[in-house]
Please model this.
Amino acid sequence: MPPAPATPPAPEGRGVFTMTDSPCVAVCSTLYDDVCRGCGRTAMEVAEWVFLSPEEKQVIWTRIRAEGYPRRKG
Model:
């Protein structure tokens, strides 16, 4: 049996992120520092997201939330 997600899934249509979801908000844009202005992840984190463990994703979610991401408008 797979482990339970870090937070319960959001009700459909509510637009709430959970820690196991990708933080992508379809605002894919980087400037000179390789950090996406939409989700706050580095290019490497975006590329490797599907291969990361739930714990690794949790670390990234914690960092990007502290930095004010994800942002729907860049």
Summary: Residues 20 and 53 are 9 Å apart (CA to CA).
